[in-house]
């Protein structure tokens, strides 16, 4: 009988322990299921977020490739513009050099013409002085001639020659 009672107590204790273990197991499973559901929801949210990030990444990569192509195109255009500008600048420098040479040559030619003009002006002035001297000589001779020929009335009836010199103005065609 004591054994039976011990057995019944042992079985009751085992049943209570079993019930307690089952309750603990069910509570633990319920919490784990709850956690698993939350974790699955978090995983789904993370997957959705990762998918969205992947789509954004793909969009950014496509945009980046597009911008890279545009950048390369702009770089080529810039290089072409720089080459064209450098060529134009070199052409303009050549033109400036030619114009400076032309200006220098024109200045030298003008200086030469000015020297020639000065020489001609000096010759003209010398000729004017010489003509004035000859005029004085002729007038002096004329007066002597008139005084010496006062006995000849027929010669006095001739008009007395007057010499007038009209200087010509020289103009240069260049």
From TrEMBL:
GO terms assigned for molecular function: structural constituent of postsynaptic intermediate filament cytoskeleton
Signal peptide as annotated in the record: none
Keywords for the protein's UniProt record, in alphabetical order: Coiled coil, Intermediate filament
Positions of transmembrane segments: none
A Gene Ontology term for the protein's cellular component: intermediate filament
Keyword Coiled coil: yes
Residue ranges of every copy of the IF rod domain listed in the record: 1-145
Name of the protein this chain belongs to: AINX protein
Gene this protein is translated from: Ina_0
């Amino acid at each position: 009988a004591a054994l039976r009672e011990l057995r019944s107590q042992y079985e009751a204790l085992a049943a209570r322990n079993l019930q307690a273990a089952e309750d603990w197991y069910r509570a633990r499973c319920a919490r784990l299921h709850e956690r698993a559901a939350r974790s699955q929801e978090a995983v789904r949210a993370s997957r959705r977020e990762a998918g969205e990030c992947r789509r954004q990444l793909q969009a950014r990569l496509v945009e980046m490739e597009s911008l890279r192509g545009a950048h390369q195109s702009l770089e080529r255009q810039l290089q072409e513009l720089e080459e064209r500008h450098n060529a134009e600048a070199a052409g303009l420098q050549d033109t400036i050099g030619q114009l400076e040479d032309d200006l220098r040559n024109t200045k030298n030619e003008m200086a030469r013409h000015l020297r020639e003009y000065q020489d001609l002006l000096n010759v003209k002035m010398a000729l004017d002085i010489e003509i004035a001297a000859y005029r004085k000589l002729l007038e002096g001779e004329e007066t002597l001639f008139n005084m010496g020929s006062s006995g000849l009335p027929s010669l006095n009836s001739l008009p007395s020659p007057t010499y007038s010199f009209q200087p010509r103005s020289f103009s240069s065609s260049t």
